[in-house]
From TrEMBL:
A GO BP annotation: phosphorelay signal transduction system
Protein's UniProt name: Two-component system response regulator
Residues found modified as 4-aspartylphosphate: 74
Cross-referenced InterPro entries: ActR_PrrA_rreg, Bact_response_regulator, CheY-like_superfamily, Sig_transdc_resp-reg_receiver
Entry keywords, A to Z: DNA-binding, Phosphoprotein, Transcription, Transcription regulation, Two-component regulatory system
Pfam families associated with the record: Response_reg (PF00072)
GO molecular function terms noted in the UniProt entry: DNA binding
The Response regulatory domain, residue ranges: 25-139
SUPFAM superfamilies linked to this entry: CheY-like (SSF52172)
Length: 195
């Protein structure tokens, strides 16, 4: 991919100039229809040629058909895991730039996605500017920190959700591993995620 080192992101990080690229194909795979449609419109306005899918099956078919240069993939989809799509995409197009989207309790898996070839991961609901910056950051540069990073309460909540998922959603086992009273854990799990 061509890189324009003269243009920089607002934070001083170098960005690929999308205008200089021959292939601007972007595949967005997310099962949240309103979010997927909003993100697709926003990314089209930024110059990407957007295709969308709502499932692993549909996403795999599009990956094999269009071999996108860019992809934004939700980690958890109704019919499976977005990591499977990343693997197939890197098989058909090794230089593809993928950003993973993650919801609650998936931060550790998102880190695994980066190790598997995604260039970054973002917490949902991700802002189109953050997605664009992550997709276009120059190789070797680190993506910009988010404008609104997770609060300490949210990080704690994410950790608890992760351990809960790893324990097979077993409250007693999760409480034991976190050295927390079971009722305290149940109250935390019953609440919505903090911002």
């Amino acid at each position: 991919m061509n890189e324009n080192n003269n243009d920089a992101a607002d934070d001083g990080r170098q960005q690929i100039d999308l205008e200089t690229l021959d292939d601007r194909s972007l595949l967005i795979i997310d099962d949240d229809r309103p979010f997927r449609q909003r993100l697709a419109r926003a990314m089209e306005k930024r110059g990407f040629d957007v295709e969308v899918a709502e499932s692993v099956e549909e996403g795999m078919a599009l990956v094999r058909e269009i071999h996108p240069a860019f992809a934004v993939v939700d980690l958890r989809l109704e019919d499976g895991n977005g990591l499977d799509i990343v693997t197939v995409l890197h098989d058909v197009r090794p230089e593809a730039r993928v950003v993973m989207l993650t919801g609650y309790g998936n931060i550790a898996t998102a880190v695994a996605a980066v190790k598997a070839g995604a260039i970054d991961y973002l917490a949902k609901p991700a802002d189109a500017d953050d997605v664009s910056k992550a997709l276009l950051v120059v190789d070797g540069e680190r993506p910009a920190p988010p404008e609104n990073p997770m609060s300490a309460d949210r990080v704690r909540w994410e950790h608890i959700q992760r351990v809960y998922e790893l324990c097979g959603r077993n409250v007693s086992e999760t409480a034991r591993r976190l050295n927390m009273h079971r009722r305290t854990l149940q109250r935390i799990l019953a609440k919505r995620s903090p911002k």
